[in-house]
Design a protein that fits this description.
Length: 260
């Protein structure tokens, strides 16, 4: 089978320093794309640029919580890396797994600033050029946590529900244009996600995946590639991806209330 070519694509990835974003960078590069790789950790970006080669990789340190930062990166792009044809809104995080009464407001705000406002900032900065060029694709990385509640998911799940609905609403607003929008919603996946969630506690992070065969970052990169390689008349709205070892559970029922 011939390899799907992304030769004519310039792909902007947020959170390319790790996990899904890094795996997307490797796979999409292998298919011929030019990449704009972003994240806060400049050293990781430079390593990836050295690994892949600077001819088709532009890197830019970006903290998506910073207003105006994306606009500056886009304005400063070398002409060979413009216009952006695919935006992968991947940067995101969860902080903690505490129940609501025990959560930190600072953590909540950080997660909202990254997972919601980060996507808004990138989309607002990059989408208008796609519309003007009548060409483009926005891929958002949501989560099963945006559909299925679980104890400790609270604000993280709320942000991913936002990402899901925003993705669908983008489709509604882009009706009549050829711009495509997809929300990819992974389940249990082993990346740096849990180390970040548990604030550097590697043992606790490891315990999340113990005895499981989780999604790998490369699996999500393949999903992203599959979406981009659909013909132009096909839009994948949402994809929910779980490892086979994960499924749904019963509703919780409190049976201790009788007679109280
Ligand atoms: P990782 O922690 O491995 O990667 C997260 C990436 O996001 C890093 O590259 C990090 O880069 C970047 N990032 C975090 N905060 C910011 C910020 N403020 N500005 C810019 N970049 C930032 O986790 P995953 O690869 O698993 O996560 C990627 C996405 O997938 C997230 O949106 C996550 O919510 C989602 N997801 C993850 C699942 C999982 O189980 N792993 C399942 C479902 C969805 P840096 O630190 O260098 O800034
Ligand atoms: C990450 C998956 O189940 O840890 O989005 O929320 S989960």
């Amino acid at each position: 089978m011939t390899k799907f070519s992304l030769k004519n694509h310039i792909i902007f990835i947020t959170g390319a320093t790790s996990g899904f974003g890094k795996a997307c960078a490797r796979l999409l590069y292998a298919h011929g794309a030019k990449l704009i790789l972003t994240g806060r950790r400049g050293e990781k970006l430079r390593e990836l640029q050295v690994e892949l080669g600077a001819d088709r990789v532009h890197i830019a340190e970006l903290d998506v919580t910073q207003k105006g930062a994306v606009e500056k990166i886009v304005a400063d792009l070398p002409s060979a890396f413009s216009p952006i044809t695919v935006l992968i809104n991947n940067a995101g995080l969860a902080l903690g797994l505490e129940l609501v009464p025990n959560c930190s407001l600072d953590d909540w705000e950080h997660v909202v600033d990254t997972n919601i406002k980060g996507i808004l900032r990138c989309t607002h900065a990059i989408l208008p050029t796609m519309v003007a060029n009548k060409s483009g694709y926005v891929i958002n990385i949501g989560s099963i946590a945006g559909t299925y509640p679980y104890p400790g998911g609270n604000v993280y799940g709320g942000t991913k529900a936002f990402v899901k609905q925003f993705s669908l609403n983008l489709r509604a607003d882009l009706f009549g244009t050829p711009i495509r929008v997809t929300n990819i919603e992974p389940g249990l996946a082993e990346t740096e996600f849990s180390v970040v969630r548990f604030k550097g506690d590697e043992e606790k992070a490891k315990s999340i995946y113990a005895g499981t065969e989780p999604i790998l970052a490369e699996d999500i990169a393949e999903t992203v590639l599959w979406c981009i390689s659909r013909p132009a008349h096909i839009n994948i709205n949402r994809i929910e991806v779980m490892p086979t070892c994960q499924a749904f559970s019963m509703f919780a029922i409190n049976r201790s209330l009788l007679g109280k």
